[in-house]
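Progress report, Aim 2. The chain analyzed during this reporting quarter is listed below.
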Amino acid sequence: MSNQTIKKVALAYSGGLDTSVILKWLEETYNCDVVTFTADIGQGEEVEPARAKAKAMGIKEIYIDDLQEEFVRDFVYPMFRANTVYEGEYLLGTSIARPLIAKRLIEIVNQTGCDAICHGATGKGNDQVRFELGAYALKPDIKVIAPWREWDLTSRETLLAYAEKHNIPIEMKRGKSSPYSMDANLLHISYEGVILEDPWAEPEEDMWRWTVSPESAPDQPLYLELTYDQGDIVAIDGEQLSPAKVLAKLNYVGGANGVGRLDIVENRYVGMKSRGCYETPGGTIMLKAHRAIESLTLDREVAHLKDDLMPRYASLIYNGYWWSPERLMLQQMIDASQVNVNGQVRLKLYKGSVSVVGRKSETNSLFDMNIATFEDDKGAYNQKDAEGFIKLNALRLRIAGKKGVKFTETR
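Predicted structure tokens for the chain:
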């Protein structure tokens, strides 16, 4: 990339060590103006100090946006309508935030006339792919600067030395800092690095920030009632809440009851395995409850088709293809399936577990007690019909058996 073609760059800026060094490095390497963008997506930390730090470094155009409602309404909720889980466990808390940040970066590019965007994702991780696939989908000719793929600052020590040399203030937080590489938003908080690089090492208890340990959780269960409208939670215990407030409340009550801890080894898109720990209390509750209301309101084949497609949908999000035509196509189908997903789910939270203890839908339930009952169904279901159903389904098995065809296990 020719430095002469870059006059102005929109930088995804947190105000931490990496992006503060990147800001100065951009000016030094590309001799360009920098526009900073800081997203508040519920990470639980004050974002305004980033403004003061950017100003102190001479930045004139500074964007700090509260995107919490948009994040949950337009990204988290659509994902949970699909019951999305990557590799059977991961609720995609980091993955789902990246397309929103990419979208807002491109909006800022269009508003300010930037030639390029810049991010602080490393060349080993998934986030570089997610940011850049999103940016290219939304603005195909955008230039992307990824310093970790260009510079020779390959460690925290070299970053600190660079910051000291250029008088870059790097300490914005008071109190004990975490040794882990962390990412947080309203859906989750993730931890990587240090002892977690050994898959055999148990995480230290004081690492966790959002959840109490199940052993320390209250001895009495907590009951919740969630109200659904077309697949989305709209109220908790009868109180109408916005999407972001729903997730914030579920995070609070889930964390207080030890819900939502996860320790996994996952397959990154770039090819390596990575061990990470996650806290997703609200998302864990949402997944359990959504499947419960769907069990009552979705047709069997629709539900099974959604389950068949979900791993593909999850991989699209994990790998950064939120803005792809295939994800958008799948989303239309998923959203169409949610029209009748209305009603209430009652949950019990207890020492790290989430149990469904009730579900109902006054208008859209497909559960018919008269048919399902083990008592006298008064002719609602003719049990003799099952004989023909079974024989028809057994026909191919009986033919093979009569002809002596053997289906044996290989081991």
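The mean pLDDT is 94. The two ends are 56 Å apart (CA to CA). These observations will guide the mutagenesis work planned for the next reporting period.
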